[in-house]
Amino acid sequence: MFGKGIIIREAHFPGRAAIEAYGNGGFRFADMSHRGSLLCLPSGIHGWQPADATALSVADFDKVLAEAGKIEILLVGMGKELRPLPAALRAALKQAGISADPMSTGAAVRTYNVLLAEDRAVAAALVAVD
């Protein structure tokens, strides 16, 4: 007999991969597609659901902060338009030794791919765009 229902697991790709495409509310990487936002960390690529993409909080970056010793640069794709990071978030990242650069999601994807190819200690928090 089968178990009780479908088990939904947290979206996670256990490796580093370039982002092949973005738009339509998601991303393509490693010959896969993901609907929604992403965290690209040294531990892998994780599905990400910030509470409010227009007002990111420190709690939205718990996974980033947990890997702080492995990340020098965090690219924050803020959606279609650049918005500043909230002061509390910027302070928490700085205290963890992470340089955070907010930009549009498109610019963050392109920059992430270049820095990843250079084997830099880079991570990205990417808000999905339509």
TrEMBL record:
InterPro entries attached to this UniProt entry: MTH938-like_sf (IPR036748), NDUFAF3/AAMDC (IPR007523)
Superkingdom of the source species: Bacteria
Coiled-coil segments on the chain, per record: none
Gene3D superfamilies tied to this protein: MTH938-like (3.40.1230.10)
UniProt protein name: Mth938-like domain-containing protein
Organism for this UniProt entry: Mesorhizobium hungaricum
